[in-house]
Amino acid sequence: MTLTDIIPKLASHLGGLPLGDLAELRRQQVKGPGAPAFWRLASQYGFLHQPVEPWVAITKIMAILTPRAAQGDAGSLHSRSYPLGRALCDGGQSGWVSGANAMPVFSEARLARLIALPFNRRAEGLERAVRMIANKRDKNIGIDCFDIANLLLSDDPSHIQKLSKAYYGRLDAATNPKGN
């Protein structure tokens, strides 16, 4: 399976997992052995023979973003139309206040620290970032989980640039609604 196949299926599957498995995925250590729930997902979705650490981080972060709800009522986790950078800015909230004094949920200073992290520390920074928005986001607004995977699987600067463009595009649209 390719990343294009894996991420939407994984996102859908996480929403239907028993709460205990989700909790196990959220608690797993990225540099650790991986939780049993992780290994079941790795086998089922074809990343069993991929490098373990980035996939542990991806599943952990996606599990953190999966709303705590009754099984089968987790809302939407993944949507290609809602970039991670936008969600960091507005918290994944449809009612986020715009205007001249709009304050991003994840501050510009925090974003600057996140994008400055070396690749080998990006997973921990990204985990902290999504924890800030996980409980705030509307459960029916999915986030582009490809952004998460790409940031953790590749050191290509275009992924950080995409994150930054989406964040600042959303912030600028909120603070300058008429393009002034």
Tell me roughly what share of residues is in helical segments.
55-70%
CATH class: Mainly Alpha
Order of helices and strands: HHHHHHHHH
CATH superfamily: CRISPR-associated protein Cse2
Can you give the mean pLDDT?
Answer: 92
Helix count from the secondary structure assignment: 9
By secondary-structure content and strand pairing, the structural class works out as: mainly alpha
The CATH topology comes to Peroxidase, domain 1
Radius of gyration, whole Å: 16 Å
Unreliable stretches, pLDDT < 50, 5 or more residues? none
Counted beta strands = 0
Q: Describe the biggest sheet?
A: none
Give the end-to-end Cα distance, rounded to a whole number of Å.
Answer: 46 Å
SSE topology sketch:
Blueprint: H1 3-15, H2 19-27, H3 36-45, H4 52-65, H5 84-90, H6 108-116, H7 122-134, H8 145-153, H9 157-175
Helix pairs in contact: 2-4, 4-7, 4-8, 5-9, 6-7
